[in-house]
Amino acid sequence: MSEHLRTALELAASQIPVLPLRAGKVPFGNCPACADNACGGRPNMKNSGPCACPGPCHAWAAATTDPDVISSVIWQRAWARASAVAYHPGGAGLTVVDLDNVDAITWARANLPATQTVPTTRGEHWIYLGTMGSSNAMRPGVDIKSTMAYARWRGPGTGTITALPDIVRALVVKEPVVVRPAQQALIVPAPAGGGACRHRTPTYLDRGIAMAEQRITDARSGVHVTVYRTFLAVLSVHGRCGCLTETHIGRLFTAAQAKGETARHCADAWTNARTQLGL
Q1: What is the DSSP code (8-state) at residue 259?
Q2: Are the beta carbons of 62 and 51 closer than 8 angstroms?
Q3: Which of 73, 85, 105, 216 qualifies as a cystine partner to 153, CB 3.0-4.6 A?
Q4: pTM of full prediction above 0.70
Q5: Distance between CA atoms of 105 and 242, rounded to whole angstroms?
Q6: What is the C-alpha to C-alpha distance for residues 225 and 268, in angstroms, rounded to an integer?
Q7: Which phi and psi (to 5°) does residue 148 adopt?
Q8: pLDDT averaged per 10 residues in sequence order, the chain, 279 residues
Q9: How many CB atoms lie within 10 A of CB 195?
């Protein structure tokens, strides 16, 4: 039994769906019968029908926990050629925050709750309990891998896995379209409550606001959405503890307006973010 097959069976026994990867961390391609999606896809692929193909030729959708499939003759041939084992995070009820570089890791340590961490070739995987939609490049060096995606298995890592936080979900949320009210005077929204942050230090808050300002300043495109997502991220961490002051909010608004956003859009984006989080 190959090392990859042994690892795959161990993961499957823990209800983690697995599949083999070829060199370059890519899945095995379609077999001739499934080329050009002639088979109709796999049962768990979006908008697809059943597929009778017994091989691992449908990327993440081929991932399985069935030991008979994993150790079948056709899969063993794949394992013999495989360079790594992959798994479907969403199928295991997990979300992987893939951090590709040092800057991304620094951002995660300043903004995300600690959880199970796995080192990768260039960075780290932060693994949370819960599922969401997958998406690439949600911010520089940060990808989300959960449903309809696969991640390379790199070992169990360290730390205790924690629940998927709102700030990660906020990374893939698009700003809703709202009907704006009639023209009215604009002011910086007053924070709800005041005082020191109950779960982080003042230094943590100041660093978070500074990073949020920088995220807006660094936006090269999609500034409108970047501003909303940044507001959403800040509120998801500090919106309920009452530590945000008018000064903090004003700094965010100033950064957004320096990128060409209007005062009205800043106010609307802040209100929309609060509504999204139920604040």
Answers
A1: T
A2: no
A3: 85
A4: no
A5: 27
A6: 12
A7: 55, 45
A8: 93 94 88 79 52 85 92 94 95 95 93 94 95 86 92 94 89 58 48 53 78 87 83 83 82 89 84 79
A9: 9
Which tokens sit at 22? 């070829």
Residue 197 has a CB neighbour count (10 Å cut-off) of 17
Q: Is the backbone of residue 41 left (phi > 0), alpha (psi -120 to 50) or beta?
A: left
For the beta carbon of residue 104, count every other beta carbon within 10 angstroms.
Answer: 21
3 state DSSP class of 38 = coil
Amino acid at 112: L
- Supply the DSSP string of 68-121, one letter for each residue: HHHTSHHHHHHHHH-SEEEE-TGGGTEEEEEE-SHHHHHHHHHHS---EEEE-S
**Tokens 């320096």 -> residue:** 258
Contacts (Cβ under 8 Å, ≥6 apart) of 262: none
23 vs 10: CA distance, rounded Å: 22
